Amino acid sequence: MRICWITISLVLLTSAPLSIYSEQRHLVNMTLVQNATAQGAGNLPAYHLDRGFGTGARNWLLQFEGGGWCNDIESCLERSKTRRGSTRYMSKWEIFSGILSNNASLNPDFYNWNRVKLRYCDGASFAGDSMFRNETARLYFRGQRIWKAIILDLLPKGLNGADKALLSGCSAGGLATFLHCDNFTKLLPKNASVKCLSDAGFFLDVRDVSLQHSARLFYENLIVLQGAEQILNKNCTSSRYYPNQCFFPQYALPYIKTPYFILNSAYDVYQFHHNLVPPSTDLRGHWKQCKLNPASCNQNQLIILQGCFRFEMLRALLFFYEYSRKGGLFINSCFAHCQSESQDTWFAPDSPRVHNKTIAESVGDWYFERKITREVDCPYPCDSTCHNLIP
Ligand SMILES: *[C@@H]1O[C@H](CO)[C@@H](O)[C@H](O)[C@H]1NC(C)=O
Ligand SMILES: *[C@@H]1O[C@H](CO)[C@@H](O)[C@H](O)[C@H]1NC(C)=O
Ligand SMILES: *[C@@H]1O[C@H](CO)[C@@H](O)[C@H](O)[C@H]1NC(C)=O
Ligand SMILES: *[C@@H]1O[C@H](CO)[C@@H](O)[C@H](O)[C@H]1NC(C)=O
Ligand SMILES: *[C@@H]1O[C@H](CO)[C@@H](O)[C@H](O)[C@H]1NC(C)=O
Ligand SMILES: *[C@@H]1O[C@H](CO)[C@@H](O)[C@H](O)[C@H]1NC(C)=O
Ligand SMILES: *[C@@H]1O[C@H](CO)[C@@H](O)[C@H](O)[C@H]1NC(C)=O
Ligand SMILES: *[C@@H]1O[C@H](CO)[C@@H](O)[C@H](O)[C@H]1NC(C)=O
Known about the structure:
The protein is an alpha/beta fold. 28% of the residues lie in helices and 16% in strands. It is an enzyme of class 3 (hydrolase).
């Protein structure tokens, strides 16, 4: 029997309807990086760059694309034949919205920065460096080299003269920010103001509902297969009995020196569906309805979501909340995953708020040090501003 700490009361869910926010689609083209050492089988690293202007011309926002991971040869081989595994199969134009928008009324603080989307095709949050080959198959795990090649390409395009910079990303891209944040700072001018933002990247070292460490096992396999050990923070790995745990943000964060903003839902739907209740733990489908609609969760399921997931998330962030002088936080209680890239959740008349502040306002206040921003929402279902975005 699990012990959970929070007693909950059942109230009917009222979730805000999704807004159809009229917005002109802003498309940005792809730039391929011609760098042989970073490529695998003719597949070049790629990014999309939208130039900054006016007062933002010397500021840079880099955003890692997300998209899950692959942690064994079979799944990586499958992936290599899709847009998740090769820039060859990717869309050549990307919509820049939310934090990437170039419109001041949709993205008040970053609209005129140089904005870059780093395309994700390595399957390990840009962290791997290894290779697999046998007579019939060949796989390149080139995450670290792709990261480096893209940065080297951007430096002479103005990144080497940056005044302000923000490294962001969502999901697997949010996790990538933790792995590369201090490295990013080192590559930029000493006097630049550099900060990092993780959106839905705070993956917890949480036990699943059958009490197994399935998330830990998943990432362990990923690290070993793709050769990601070298990139883990040395001060973190030397402090832990299981060094590979430093892939988890909760253990690495205290060792990261660059100022951080953590944006996450306390009921992150990806983690809920894959790490807390992976399909293998729910063969009978008891969680099916609850996964599709939080209003259908029974009392027991809510206790697990509140006490064993939200509680664990807040506990993992307590140190950061209390002691990080330059840190920012926005932990809302929406069933969502990634809230900075879509206009609806980033900055719109009806977008999610905590203490009446949108995510865009919170991130901006933190970045520009206008206000200390550490927003933690009340537990589900109290927040009526949510856009519950369930895949
Ligand atoms: C992509 O955009 C840049 C800047 O607008 C331009 O210089 C370049 O020619 C474009 N490339 C393609 C393939 O359209
Ligand atoms: C910026 O967004 C606002 C609000 O959606 C819209 O009215 C305006 O036309 C947009 N401006 C441009 C240049 O797209
Ligand atoms: C090469 O590895 C793949 C993936 O593990 C496997 O399916 C295939 O049979 C292997 N080929 C040989 C010749 O061993
Ligand atoms: C940054 O990361 C790259 C790729 O992992 C590595 O080669 C490089 O040495 C790092 N730079 C610094 C200054 O740590
Ligand atoms: C290509 O990438 C590698 C590793 O990422 C780096 O060491 C090398 O300097 C890059 N070459 C060029 C021409 O940018
Ligand atoms: C950093 O130093 C360079 C060179 O001295 C200067 O041009 C730039 O304006 C400085 N940037 C900031 C943010 O102070
Ligand atoms: C580890 O900590 C020491 C002392 O605070 C610091 O000088 C060093 O840069 C840190 N190393 C990394 C990889 O963060
Ligand atoms: C919430 O903020 C909006 C502006 O973003 C303001 O118009 C509104 O009055 C505020 N509501 C409360 C209850 O403070």
